[in-house]
Amino acid sequence: MRRLKIAVVCKEGTANAHYRALVPADELVRRGHTTLRGSSDGSFARRVLTTQPSWDVTLMQQMTGEVDLQAARRLRQLGIAVVWDTDDDIRAIPRSSPAYRRMGGRRGIKQAYARTLEIARTAHLMTTPSDHLAAMYREEGVEHVAVIENNLARDAIRHAGRRRHPGTVIGCLAALEHERDLKRLKIGRTLERILATHEGVSVLAIGCDLGIDDPRYRWRTDLSLDEVQRALLQVDVGIAPLVDGVMTRGRSNVKLKEYAASGAMWLASPLGAYRGMGEVEGGLLVEDGGWERTLSEMITDHERRTRLMARARDWVAGETIAQAGQIWERQLRAAVERARSQAGVTVAGAR
After folding, report:
1. What is the CA angle 253-257-262, rounded to 5?
2. Could you list the residue range(s) of the whole structural domain that residue 251 is in?
3. Are 55 and 36 within 8 A, CB to CB?
């Protein structure tokens, strides 16, 4: 099979870029393809518009600017495949999120969404980890959409590096857009009561501050992805609370994979991508109002907690990019073939 030359452009340093572009790109290199990285500051798009690109396919992760749309159109004219990826419904960005202001508020988000539709329709393939987002874009006229889950990097399974520690550590990994979920479900107050009731329990929050006034509460923010993974090695029970809403329906289940990769069991709301998961994957689903009771049970039932932690480790072993790399490879090859056939070019060796 012909090896592909793949251009990758994304906003590096974000979880979106990590799981949807950089991890797949690294795996494709392992499979013999070559990649080149493009900057999200507009320089990559300008290069496309002012030079003669020589690669086979461009993977654009959540690039939504006007110049990105222009670049996608030119690539299509040249017969170079465009694969556009998104893992967020930007229409549902809450006002509390820094992204809301950064994108220009309600009007800016509306304009950005209109551009995402144009880019997705221009692309030879749209990829997303969410069935909900896939259905939404198909309804908007995007013809070729592939659902590919978020998968961990090969080196992200780090539970072998756990160290024994006293007591039970509850972890809450939540970006700022989850602040509304945590407040509505009163997770901070719930965990305050847990700390007051159970000796030897501590809470580690990464991202959102739960506002707990207790010496056994720690809050960490502004961590790199590698630092997050190392911090999670301390966690025994990871929580993923959600409230129903448009943003929730587009979420992936990668947070549960991150907890499992650290060796922790997990508790999650039965919503979005978490629906249907459970003990086989190393965790439990928790209805609204059941968080305090379920956490208490996991703290006191050491045997069950240990069993779920073991199941989480078994499950996550099959959730790395090593298993999903062939899916990305197959989808990118199909996009290249589609692009070149539409441009009247035969894809040598692609069949």
Report:
1. 150
2. 155-316
3. yes
Domain match, 184 and 277 both? yes
Residues 76 and 289: their CA atoms lie apart, in Å, by: 51
311 and 328 housed in the same domain: no
Strands 217-220 and 201-207, sheet pairing: parallel
- Give this prediction's pTM: 0.91
Distance CA 171, CA 278 (A): 18
Number of folded domains that form the chain: 2
- Does residue 227 form part of some domain? yes
Residues 249 and 101 in one domain: no
Cα(348)–Cα(351) distance, integer angstroms: 8
Domain co-membership, 308 together with 170: yes
SS3 state of residue 164: coil
> Measured between alpha carbons, how far is 37 from 6 in angstroms, rounded to an integer?
9
Q: What is the DSSP letter of 210?
A: -
What is each CA distance from 140 to 20, 120, 121, 135, 148, in whole angstroms?
22, 10, 9, 9, 19
- The pLDDT tens digits of the residues spanning 210-229 come to 999 999 999 999 899 999 99
Helix and strand totals (H; E) in the chain: 15, 12
pLDDT tens digit sequence for 72-124: 999 999 999 999 999 988 777 767 676 777 777 878 888 888 999 999 999 99
**Any domain includes 348:** no
Q: Given the structure tokens 């949807």, which residue do they identify?
A: 20
User: For tokens 């990649």, what's the residue?
Assistant: 35
Q: Are residues 98 and 207 in the same domain?
A: no
Closest by CA position to 254, among listed 342, 329, 173, 134: 173
Amino acid at 70: Q
- Rounded Cα–Cα distance for residues 250 and 43 (Å): 30
Tokens 């991202």 label which residue?
Answer: 207
Q: Which of 36, 137, 155, 43 is nearest to 86 (CA)?
A: 137
